[in-house]
Amino acid sequence: MNSGKTFSLALALLLLFSFRMKAEIRDTLKGVDQNNSIEDNSVSNEVGFDMAFFLNIFRSQYEPTVSTLFSLSYNRELSEKYELRSTFGMGYADFTTQSLNQPSLLTKNNQEDFKIGLARKTPCYKRWVFYYGVDWEFQNGFASEQSLTIVGADQCIMTNTTRLLLTGPGPFSGLIFFINPRISLNIESNLNFVYTKNADQSDYTVHPEMNTSLTSKGFTSEFTIPQSLFLNIKF
User: Fold this and answer.
1) What is the CA radius of gyration of the chain?
2) Residue 116 and residue 198: Cα distance in Å, rounded?
3) In this structure, what DSSP letter does residue 40 have?
4) Which of 23, 25, 145, 150 is 20 to 30 A from 65 in CA distance terms?
5) CB-hemisphere CA count at 13 Å for 230?
6) Rounded to the nearest 5°, which phi and psi values hold at 10?
7) Which of 4-18, 110-124, 174-188 has the lowest mean pLDDT?
8) Which residues pair with 218 in a beta bridge?
9) CB-based contacts of 90: which residues, under 8 Å, 6+ apart?
10) In the chain, what percentage of residues exceed pLDDT 90?
């Protein structure tokens, strides 16, 4: 096939694809209020997942830490402006560090995070929507890390263990960008006022008399800058 025929065929396929996409978008826009928002208000359910988790997996140097949670969200519209929202996140890491002529050192981390709350949405510019609200956060975490240390004349392994329980309410705000009426991206920041319980423990393989433990309780505030990028789908 010569280049002229190839170009004509490619142009025909492009036009066909363009007309098909235009028809699909026109059908999707049925039930969408064009004057106020590009969002499709004819459906009330929305699920989303945090793209930061997958971006971390496909990095050239993967970091197996709980700093990147696998998070899922579910939102239910109560009206055009208000929605009930929930988010569940989970992270887990278990790996071993091996050095030459040294014992293996273990590191374990896991974290679960759950939020539920109410949001109010306000269209601000074309495809952009600003939202804010309040939610309640529950968080449970565990971390264990081994390291080599010297106690007197002996080399031993020290295991540091931390357990964290956190819960409390707080406001949030964020921005939504609609790719099309049913698919969007969003980021947000949170400020939670929480009750925390933190338990730290250190254990030695030799000289157990040096083992220590510390438990602390109290109230504090927790501010979270935008760290997640959610891809959301309405249905």
Assistant:
1) 25
2) 23
3) B
4) 150
5) 26
6) -65, -40
7) 4-18
8) 196
9) 69, 70, 71, 110, 111, 112, 113
10) 53
Non-local (6+) Cβ contacts of 86 within 8 A are: 73, 74, 75, 114, 115, 116, 117
50-97: per-residue pLDDT in tens?
887 766 666 555 455 445 578 899 999 999 899 999 999 988 888 888
- Band (pLDDT 50/70/90 cuts) for residue 102 is confident
List of long-range contacts for 25-33, beta carbons under 8 Å, 24+ apart = 25/180, 28/180, 28/181, 28/182, 29/181, 32/181, 33/80
Is pLDDT of 117 > 70? yes
Amino acid 218: pLDDT: 96
End-to-end, the C-alpha distance of the chain in Å comes to 44
- Amino acid identity, position 145: E
49 in Cβ contact with 74 (< 8 Å) = no
Is the dihedral angle over the CA atoms 6, 8, 11, 16 positive or is it negative? negative
